[in-house]
Amino acid sequence: MNIAKPNSYRSGPDERGHFGIFGGRFVAETLMPLILDLEKAYTAAKADPAFQAEMNGYLKNYVGRPSPLYFAERLTEHLGGAKIYLKREELNHTGSHKVNNVLGQIMLARRMGKKRIIAETGAGQHGVATATLCARFGLECVVYMGAVDVERQQPNVIRMEMLGAKVFPVQSGTRTLKDAMNEALRDWVTNVHNTFYCIGTVAGPHPYPTLVRDFQSIIGHETKAQMQEVEGRLPDSLVACIGGGSNAMGLFHPFLDDPSVEIFGVEAAGHGLTQLHAASIAGGRPGVLHGNRTYLLMDADGQIQDAHSISAGLDYPGIGPEHSWLHEVGRVNYLSATDDEALAAFQLLSKLEGIIPALEPAHAIAKVMELAPKRPKDHLMVVNLSGRGDKDVPQVGDILRGKSK
Amino acid sequence: MTTRIDTRFAELRKQGRSAFVTFLMAGDPDPATSLEIIKALPKSGADVIEIGMPFTDPMADGPSIQAAGLRALRAGMTLKRTLELVRGFRKDDDATPIVLMGYYNPIYVYGVDKFLVDAKSAGVDGLIIVDLPPEEDDELCLPAMKAGLNFIRLATPTTDDKRLPAVLANTSGFVYYVSITGITGAAAADSSAVSEAVARIKRHTKLPVCVGFGIRTPEAARAIAEKADGSVVGTALVDALKNSLDAEGRATAKTINAVAELTAALAKGVKDAKAKTAAE
Lengths: 405, 280
Known about the structure:
Chain A is of the alpha/beta class and 405 residues long. Helices cover 43% and strands 18% of the residues of chain A. The two termini of chain B are 23 Å apart.
C-alpha cells in the first residue's frame, strides 16, 4: 500500500469522522440531525469530569472492573513459546466486554433525555449488556437479532427477555447480524424523536466508531498498567478476535503508538477463505454500508454478500472503519481462523485453563496457538478473552456430540 | 444547465398542476417485464419516473420495497442493467424525466466517474441517494452536478430550519420531502402537517417540492397535489405489481396492466386536484 505513515496512529478520526478514506456519515437525512446531536453530547460529556466519575463508579462496582490480567501458565507450557496472558473481559458483569461500551452509551442517552433504547445483536452479548443496563436505569429496551442467531444463541435470548427487553427476531436477508442492524436502523428512522441507538461495535456512522472505541479503550489502558505492574514493561504482542472489532480496538488503541508492540486482529474464516466466511479484510474491499465506508464482503455489483461464521458475534460482512485504516497503513496485522480452528481452541482453553471461552475469542486463541510457539519464552503475548462461553455450550455440545454443523 | 426535470416542472407550472411521480424497482420482477412497465408509465399519467436501483441492504425501505429489490436481484439485475433499462426507455421517450433512486454502495463500487458518464449517456436526469446526506457531498453530489445530473435531496420532518439551508445548498431538480419519520410504505402523513412543512421548505428554495412516503390512494395523491408540486407513490405500485405475480414470483399476463391501471387512477387523483395558481 502506498499510504504515508501518520505521525500518530491514535489521532483519528478527522472532524468528519474519517480514518483515511474510511468512516464517514452515510445515513438517511432523517438521522443526520440526531447524529450531530450525539456528537455534541459526546464531546460535552467527555469534557465533563462528573460524567467520567459517574462512569468509573459503575465500572468498578457494577461491572466489576478492573478485569484481571491472568498468566495462562498451562496454555503457555503447552504451546512452548511466548508467555501468554489473558485479559479477562469474560469476567465482567454480563459476561463480555460489551458492557463497557453499553454503560457509556446508556449514560449518554440519559444525558440526552432519551427513554427508549434500541440495539442490534449477533451473539446476544451486546443485547444482554444493553438489556441489563436498561433494566438498571429503568429504560425501555428493544433488541433486534437475526432469526438464525435467535436459534443458535437461545440462552442469551432468554436472558434478554428476563431482563425485560423485547427481542425481535429479524427475518429479512440472511437473518443474521447485518440484517439485525438494518432493522435497528429502520426502527431508529421511525422513532427518532425518543430513541437512542446503542450500537454494539466500532462501526456505523461517525461518531459511533470513535465513542465505542473510547469506551472500550479501558481494556487496553488497564492491560498496559497491569503488565507494567507484573512484568515491568510493555507486552510484545496483542491478539484479539474481530467481527465489527470493538474488543480488539479497545485492547489495541492505547498501544498503537508503541512501535515495539506487534498487533494481531483475527477475523472469522468460517469454512475457509475460499468458501463461506466472515473475513472482510482478507476477502473484501472498500464499500459503504451501515453508515460508514469500510472493508466489506460484496460481489462485483456492490451487493453485500452473506457472511458465515460458527460464531454469531463474528458473522458480519464488514468491520469497523478504523480497522480498515489500520490495515491499510500496516499498523495491525489481520489474520483469520476457521470454524474448526476456533472449535479446537475452545476445547483446548477449556481443558488447560478451566476457562470456557466464547466462540468469538476462541478465534483469537486459535491464532495464539500458531503465533506463540514461534516466539521466545520471554515474549509477552496478551490475548483478549472478550467473552465467556456459557452461551455457546448448547451449540458446541451439539457439534461435538453429533458433529452436526 | 436545464434538465428534463426542470423542463417538466416548468411545463406543469404553466398548466397549474402538480406532478405525479412514480417509483418502481428496476428489474422487478425481471428485466424485460420491468422495461415494459416503465414504458407504460408515461401513457398512464406519470410525469416523472423514479427507478429504484436494487440493493441487498436497503436501510430506509419497508418490506414491500425490500422484497422488490430482492426479486430484481434474483432475476439478475445489476446497476449496469439498470442503466440499460433507462437506455431502452429512452428509445421511445425523450421527454419524461428519469430519476434513479437507491443507495451509494453499488455506485461507489461501479466507480463514481464512470457511473456519471454512463448514467448521463443512458438518459438519466437525476439521482436520489438515500445514504448520502450533505455532509458527504464530495462523494457524488458535487461530481453529479458537474456532470449535468440533478442531485435531489431528501428533506424530512427532522430537518429543521437551521439545517434546511445545508440540505438545500447543492440540491437541484426538485426537493423530495419525506412526509414521515420512517421507512417507505409506513403510515400516511397528516396532510396539514405536510402542508406546513412544504410551506416551510418553500421559504428556503424556489425548487419544486414533491412529497412522498405513505401516499397509497388516488384520494391521498389528490390531497397532496393540492399542497405540493408533486406527489410520489412507490410502495402502492410495487404492491400492485407483486399481487399480479404467480406463486413463484414471476410476471403474468396481468402484471403490466396492474401497474398501469393503478398509475392511471393515481394520476387522475393528482389531475383532479384543485388547480394551483400559476404564480405559486
